[in-house]
Amino acid sequence: MKKILLLMAAFALLFVAPSCESDDTDFSQIIADHDTVSIRNIQFNDAEVEDSAEQIPTDIADEYFDDYIENQELNRVVNIAFNGEDATVSGDLTRCRILRNGAHLTVYITGKKVYLKVSGSTRNGSIKVYGENKFGIELCNASIHNPHGAAINSQNKKRMYVVLDEGSRNVISDGADYIDTEGEAQKATIFSEGKIIVSGKGMLQVDAQARAGIASDDYVRLRPGVHTQVISHGTHCIRANDGVMIDGGVHNLETFGNAARGIRCEAFVKMKSGRTTVITHGASVIEDIDTTSAAAVKADSIVMVSGGELRLKSTGEGGKGINAADYVQTGGTVMVVTLGENGLSSPKGVKSDSRITIEGGSFYSYSVNSYAIEGTLVLKPGAKKHLTAKRYHIVEY
């Protein structure tokens, strides 16, 4: 009975004065003897997930109408079949020109509706795309390794639709020794100057040695049905300038680099459905005069979760689960575990520069050596009315 009363008192405090809830609140003064919470086990899970129904816009005026390949007419099909040190090209070449150097292909898109269908395997190949029109690239059990740079590199600022052929398993990888071209970026194993939209019912495995796994100088959208596994030994798993949108699918991301992030965006990260698991291992570093730490999810703007399951773990010194300017959760399940030591930086479960707003869903955050949350905690009426706290290390709703 004592524990129940203490729990009620804790929630009375939170609802009466949410703006006063801050990172230095010691929950041990509220619930001193509540030891029923165990550390959640965060690990990869490849099992299928039931995605929320996807609403494909039909109004051409919709902001995201062009993100959906169903709304495009990409019928100029070009077949690319890798075979070791060589590649065979066939199909409709009326809208593109392809130069070959062994299994390294340079595709110049000269018109609209181009759709590349890629299959076969190479340990010394790549696809680089130039042009001014959106295009599709379907991976049909493709295995592409470029020892000296990005395996898929779009210098095209328009959308790149990456389609995973149903039932296929596609492995895209880079090497540790990048050879750069002056004036061109290749920030990841799969890189695009434009938007990257991933769809289909296949599997995409990205093994990044030197740089990020998937990166866009615009935004990245992962659609329902997609399965991805991104392992990065260099920097981030997924990186974008203008947004990361997870509409569904199963995503397992792991990074080993110091100060590296599983998902890194200079704008927002939004999750609607599916299951995303992110594990980081890197420690904090000093860059110029600032300290930078690893994080499972890092956004310069807002992190929003409205559905699905987001599972995050950081094991390195100072590592964060979520590090954002703002955090809002209206649904879904969020589990965060940080196991790192204090050092150049302090590990935090969820760190927000402003507020941590929970309006619904399930929320769990644990930090073994520091605060489970840092920021002003705001609970809306739709949030689960249950709090469990063990000192200041665990916060659960």
Q: Could you walk me through the main structural features you see in this protein, from its secondary elements to its overall organization?
A:
By secondary structure, the chain is mostly beta strands. 4% of the residues lie in helices and 49% in strands. It has one helix and 33 strands. It has one helix spanning 2-16; strands at 76-83, 86-91, 96-101, 103-109, 114-122, 125-131, 135-146, 152-154, 160-164, 169-174, 188-192, 196-200, 203-208, 212-216, 219-222, 227-232, 238-240, 243-246, 250-255, 261-265, 269-271, 275-280, 285-287, 290-292, 295-305, 309-314, 320-329, 333-338, 348-358, 362-367, 373-379, 388-390, 394-396. The strands form two sheets. The chain has a 31-stranded mixed β-sheet that branches. A two-stranded antiparallel sheet has the order 23-24.
Outline of the structure:
By secondary structure, this protein is mainly β.
List the helices and strands and how they pair.
Elements: H1 2-16, E1 76-83, E2 86-91, E3 96-101, E4 103-109, E5 114-122, E6 125-131, E7 135-146, E8 152-154, E9 160-164, E10 169-174, E11 188-192, E12 196-200, E13 203-208, E14 212-216, E15 219-222, E16 227-232, E17 238-240, E18 243-246, E19 250-255, E20 261-265, E21 269-271, E22 275-280, E23 285-287, E24 290-292, E25 295-305, E26 309-314, E27 320-329, E28 333-338, E29 348-358, E30 362-367, E31 373-379, E32 388-390, E33 394-396
Parallel strand pairs: 1-5, 4-6, 5-7, 6-8, 7-9, 7-10, 8-11, 9-12, 10-13, 11-14, 12-15, 13-16, 14-17, 15-18, 16-19, 17-20, 18-21, 19-22, 20-25, 21-25, 22-26, 25-27, 26-28, 27-29, 28-30, 29-31
Antiparallel strand pairs: 1-2, 3-4, 23-24, 30-33, 32-33
